[in-house]
Amino acid sequence: MLFPLPRMDAMSDLDELTRQAVRRLEQRRHGVVVAALAGDATEIRSSGGLTADSRLEIGSVSKVFTSLILARMAERGEVGLDQPLGDFLPAPAGITLRHLATHTSGLPRLPKGMVIRAIIRRETTDPYAHCTADFLIENLSRIRPATPGKKFRYSNLGAGLLGLALSRHAGLGYADLVAREITTPLGLSSTGTGGQVEQGHKADGKPAGPWNLADLAGAGGLRSTATDLVRFVRAHYEESVITSAVALELATEFRRNPFQTVRLGWMAHRLHPRQGGHLQILHNGQTGGYYSFVAFDQEKQVGVVMLTDTSRVGDQVGLDLLSALQSRA
Questions:
Q1: Which one-letter DSSP state was computed for residue 238?
Q2: What does the pLDDT read at residue 117?
Q3: 188 lies in some domain
Q4: 20 to 30 A Cα–Cα from 177, which one of 77, 159, 168, 284?
Q5: How far apart are CA 169 and CA 269, in angstroms?
Q6: Tens digit of each residue's pLDDT (9 = 90 or more) over 222-232
Q7: Mapping DSSP to helix (H, G, I), strand (E, B) and coil, where does residue 306 land?
Q8: Do 36 and 14 contact (CB within 8 A), yes or no?
Q9: 8 Å CB contact between 164 and 174
Q10: Structural domain tally of the chain?
């Protein structure tokens, strides 16, 4: 059920929508930051000691950065969407970069044996800390993927391998590749893989350690702020240096069912006609102590950014806010 919100017909209403979203989140979370975008207007509200410039882990939202890098490199002809992963590193036959970006590679969600490793090594702060390039390549040699291109199967392993493949092709580390392709052109000065972040918390409120993800960083190793993510989202519906790459990103899709598709990196679903029939393009992220959500509607030119310093928050508040913005745009 959509959260009932007043009709937005002025900046003050945008402010109220954002405040209500924060109030829904702050009841059980340490710190939250929520941003609502409508055209060229932005409202950012926060609580629990966080601000628009608080730096947090964004987890799997990193995947849309990685896929945007793929789109930028593909439009320049440096790589091809249908180029085999095996052109970049030892890999099973048939898997392409497009498959990795749309979660249709047939690869499992995690590297082989990782679930058991996580259970045994509960003291490990970052469950992906061992995922070096050598480990991933050796691990990949022991995996028999399902037939690529046939079925959606969300894969952190696949997204991480995409980041690794693009980095190797560019001759850069993943952090430097993100800087070259996205953060420097868009002026996202606080987004990257290193540096300090606010203290994160587990779902039970206890402090959580940082995650870095080693060479699987393309799947979830970035850190950012609401300020930077607002610029990133806005660049997906306004003219910018990434406009042509965004067009490629969103035009490439794999249909999961009549209402849901996967674009390059992004998840997309269309609301039921009774809910307005709007298209929502989104991604969330979660690490040991943080939760993130970004979403937008390119046609309506609205968007949402939601960051918390607590894990396991869920998307509902962000989805409701986006729906409210869409219905009032």
A1: S
A2: 59
A3: yes
A4: 284
A5: 32
A6: 999 999 999 99
A7: strand
A8: yes
A9: yes
A10: 1
For residue 106, the enclosing domain spans 11-328
Q: Per DSSP, what are the bridge partners of residue 97?
A: none
Distance CA 156, CA 108 (A): 8
CB 92 within 8 A of CB 140: yes
**Whether the Cβ atoms of residue 292 and residue 61 lie closer than 8 Å to each other:** yes
- Dump the DSSP string for 175-211: HHHHIIIIIHHHT-TT-BSSS--PPEE-TTS-EE---
Those residues whose C-beta lies under 8 Å from the C-beta of residue 59, and which sit 6 or more positions away, are 211, 220, 284, 285, 286, 287, 290, 291, 292
Report yes or no: 276 and 323 within 8 Å, Cβ to Cβ: yes
User: Residue 204's pLDDT is what?
Assistant: 86
At residue 123, the pLDDT reads 45
| pLDDT (tens digit per residue) in 222-278 | 999 999 999 999 999 999 999 999 999 999 989 988 889 999 999 999 988 888 889
- Rounded to whole angstroms, how far apart are CA atoms 152 and 236? 24
Q: With H, G, I as helix, E, B as strand and everything else as coil, classify residue 35.
A: strand
Residue 74 lies in a domain: yes
How many whole angstroms separate alpha carbon 14 and alpha carbon 304?
11
φ/ψ of 43, rounded to 5, equals -125, 125
Residue 242 lies in a domain: yes
User: What is the pLDDT, as a whole number, of residue 29?
Assistant: 72
Q: What angle do CA 241, 243, 249 make, to 5 degrees?
A: 125
- The H or E element that residue 140 is part of is helix 133-140
CATH number at residue 189: 3.40.710.10
Q: For residue 301, count other CB atoms closer than 10 A to its CB.
A: 17
Task: Tell me if 76 is assigned to some domain.
Answer: yes
Consecutive 10-residue averages of pLDDT for the chain (329 residues): 44 88 86 96 97 98 99 98 98 97 97 69 74 96 95 97 99 99 98 96 91 97 99 97 97 89 96 88 96 97 97 93 93
